[in-house]
Structure formats: structure tokens, C-alpha cells
Amino acid sequence: MTIYVLIFVTVVTVGLFVVMYFQGRKNVRDVQQMRAIIDHQDDYTFLLDDGFHVKQTNYYARGNVKDEGAPDLLGNVLHCKNAHKAGRCGESEECHSCPVRFVVGKAFERHKGFDGMEACMEIMGTEDQAVDVDVEVAGHYVELDKESHMVINVRDITIAKELKPKILFVSDRIALLDKVARALGDDYRVLAADNLHQVMLRLMNLDTYQFSALITDDSFYNKNASVLKMLVKDGQLPVYVFTSNDSVSDDDFARYLPMNIGMDELIQRVSAFSSCSD
Fold first, then answer.
1. What is the pLDDT of residues 46-74, one digit of tens each?
2. 194-251 pLDDT, tens digit each
3. How far apart are the C-alpha atoms of 167 and 218, rounded to whole Å?
4. Among 55, 84, 95, 192, which is least packed by CB within 10 angstroms?
5. What residues does 191 pair with on adjacent strands?
6. Higher-confidence residue: 272 or 177?
7. pLDDT at position 86 over 60
8. Which residues lie below 8 Å from residue 250, measured CB to CB, with a gap of 6+?
9. What does the alpha-carbon distance between residue 33 and residue 18 come to, in Å, rounded to a whole number?
10. Average pLDDT value over all residues in the chain
């Protein structure tokens, strides 16, 4: 009787090992197939945790870029100039006004994804030279092992041409980006810049970028009005300035918007003036 029990146990054990072996091979094949899909799609894809750590990416495979052992944070992996300068993504002063970090952070807070956020980025190229690029970023919220993650898709749209009109937005009050994008996102592409250099580069190439308007706040405008007036001449581009000062009024160059302006009014005012300038 004992010998039959031993034979039975042996057969069952061998059977389990066989099943586990083939299941393991299937799992490996499934992972390889999924990896092939990710590595050969057009966008750069990143799986992030809520600390902006990159858990998986096709960036190195898609861009033929080597993993040089930098921190696994999104900005470092993308070779963002600000992350490069500070050593770690999120630790430079400029990171506090980074539109990408802001929108991704808000998406984590809301446990929701987002689509089509556009931003200017300065990416470190060869010989430690920064290159200005425009990117479109989309995020999809997922939970893995009961922890928050975000699948981020990043697309280089520097030379992309689309029919939807585009607005150039710049402000140290990064929360204004959320308001402008939610109000105008259905009718306009909103390209977010976070410094004067990025704005100047794009305003000097208005024929290429074809902006419908520039939107900023009074803090940025008061510091840089003389530069903006040199770059935007003869009313070729409407300029809107968010302000908390109720005593200021529109002039020959700028049109002022109250900080507490409603969504509908913002759409009407921007659409009206932008249409007149086309």
C-alpha cells in the first residue's frame, strides 16, 4: 500500500513541476510579447510610481539611449535640463513650476488620467548642450499591488503640424495651467512654457508655431514686458495677462483677465480676440 502512495505522490509532484514549467514559459513569452509591443510603439512610455520613479520604460530601446546609471526619476531618465542641473528630478527651483510634474502630480492626487498636455522641455543633448523640444504628455492611472501608478506616454511634437489652434502659456503660478487647459482644451492646444528662454525661442519663430495667443500672469508680464513687446509687434498675437489688480485696464499690447474669471467668460474673451487676430 505504501508503495502505491509513494508512486501517486511522485506522479502528482512531477505533474505539478511540468505544469509549472510550461506555465512559467508562457508567462515569460507573454512578458516578451508585451515588451515587444511597448518597445516598438511610437511614443516613449513610462510606468511611474507616485514618487516619479520609473519602474519600466521603452525609452532606452526606442531612443537607442544607454542607461547611464542616473537616478530612475522621470526627469533624469528623460535627460531634462533641470534634473541634470540639480542631480535629481524635483529638486531644482525650476521643478516647482514644471508643468509636467504639476499635471502628473495632480493626476495622482485625483486618481485619474489625463490627455494631451503639451509642454516645452529643455533636454540635454550631446556635449552637455540643452535642446528645446515640445512634448505632448498623456497619463493613465492604474493600481498595481494596491499601489498608485501612472502609465505616461510622451511624444515629441516639436515639428508636428495640427489644425487645432495653439496657445502659448507661461506663468510661475502653475495652478493657472490647470484652469486654462480645462477651459480652452477642447478648442485649443495649450503649450506650457516655464521660463523666458522657452517663450522667446517660440515667439521668434511665430511663423512656424502659429500661436493664436499668449497667456501669462502679471508677475511674469511685469518682469518681461519689454522683451515681449519687442518680439510681438503690431498686434500680431493677442497677449492675455491674469491679474489680481482690479485697477488695471487693457492697453495697446495686453488684455487683462481677472484671476477669478469664470470658465465660460475666459473661453469667450480668448476666442473673440483670437478670431479677430487671424
1. 999 999 999 988 888 776 566 666 678 99
2. 888 899 988 888 777 778 899 999 999 999 999 999 888 877 889 999 998 887 788 8
3. 17
4. 55
5. 118, 168
6. 177
7. yes
8. 256
9. 23
10. 80
Q: Which of 123, 164, 151 is nearest to 43 (CA)?
A: 151
pLDDT value at position 207? 74
SS (H, E, C) the chain: CHHHHHHHHHHHHHHHHHHHHHHHHHHHHHHHHHHHHHHCCCCEEEEEECCCEEEEECHHHHHCCCCCCCCCEHHHHCCEHHHHHHCCCCCCHHHHHCHHHHHHHHHHHHCCCEEEEEEEEEEECHHHCEEEEEEEEEEEEEEECCEEEEEEEEEECCCCCCCCCEEEEECCCCHHHHHHHHHHCCCCEEEEECCHHHHHHHHCCHHHHCEEEEEEEHHHHHHHHHHHHHHCCCCCCCEEEEECCCCCCCCCCEEEEECCCCHHHHHHHHHHHHHHHC
Q: Note the pTM of the prediction, 2 decimals.
A: 0.68
In the block, residue with C-alpha cell 535640463: 81
For the chain, domains (ranges, CATH) are 43-158 (3.30.450.20), 161-278 (3.40.50.2300)
- One-letter amino acid at 146 equals K
Residue type, 47: L
| Residue owning grid cell 531612443 | 63
